[in-house]
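Before the break, one more example. Copy the sequence into your notebook; we will annotate it together after we see the structure.
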Amino acid sequence: MRIRRHIAYALFSACVMLMAATCGKEPSVDHLKGLVINEISAHDEKSDAVSWVEITNTSSAEIALNGVGLYLTDQYFDGKCVWSAPQGAKLASGERIVASTEDESLATGIASDSQFELRLGIGTATVDIFDRSKDFPDTLTRRGSYQRIPDGLGAWRRLTYPSKGRVNEVFDIDATPHTAIWTWSSHISGLMENDAAQLKEFKRLGYHHILLNYAAFESYNIKNTVPFIEKCEELGLAVHCWMQCFYKGDWINPVDDARACYKEEVFADIRKHAKTYLEEFGVKGLHLDYIRFGGTAYKHNPSATVNAVGAVNRCCQEIREIADSFDEGLVTSAALMPERNSTEYYGQSPVLMGKYIHVLMPMCYRYSYNWSDSGCKSIVNWFCDNSGGAQVWAGITTYTGNDSGGVKGMTAEQLRKDIDVFMDSKADGLVLFRCGLGKFPDVNDLK
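Here is what the structure looks like once it is written out:
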């Protein structure tokens, strides 16, 4: 059978006995007013998937859950009891309880690729109900869930990112501090050690966004990446996929110079990957790296309508359209070369890119460019004045030295001095390169 069915017979027997005891007389559920099905992760059609249901007390009083159960109607079951509240369980106002196949408290998986109805109540008496055919006809993305928005009270929505055990809400980047860290896939194991001690330390120090390199999303890393993203969500860290656009081991020219047109296959491949990162992993943002030419943009301008700047802007526009199509507050950002002549050599025009990208991140690596304090502020201010309406987060290194030569990780005190220099500019935020190098300072007091 395609769908895993871990049926807990003792649970079913208890539910049957409860219904028999109330046969002929529907039990009262008045005392359960405010108890709702708040979120559903129905993924049992996928291999080794976990299904779970979150129940929330939206009332102002504590609710005793005696006799409360979940009843499933789908292609296999006809109102079968698949969860019953633990004996003596109570939910305080605003509290949540999660039934899951992972711990077998939920007796069966639920598949979103077929219609189903999930009812909350006691026996035949109903407190709340979710009917997929009425409430939301679309199937879920791989990590997505059906959620009430606003939390506990609103209409059902399908989101690509779940919020098990937490408040359901659409992501809002401006509700978070604008601090991020560029992170390689090789850092995941260390960040997850000792119950994610380093991740917790990042959050404690005031860092709220992780730009995770695309390699983490390749098939051979998925088994580590999904738990990592889930842990970040639990801690309140937003994960963005750090994509590579016009570079894959070597530079990719998106312009067909001979035919004076764009190479459609290049843009199609980028779009395909972007959708995968959102639908399969539920990331909160798409961060575009190598969204440029390797210093040769001036060689790829065959016409006024097909040129290097146009190629960069087209990619930015298409990625923004994909992000916006989900209507989930998903964020686009882009890494920029920190040079004022970036149009000629790299095809990057921040004033044009900023029409599509939410956050521009110029890589202001002062030790590679030997900038003074005033030089650091000057270049960031230039980007802020030419951002096309986008936010500007200054990207800085956590080490001294040149990237092409030896580098030395900075102490927390040294790095904080650099951070203060950049944050004395017009910058809206801060991005550190990189995780695993240098000691990170506390930035909770940044503007």
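The first strand starts at residue 35 and ends at 41. The chain has a mean pLDDT of 94. Try to locate both features in your own notes.
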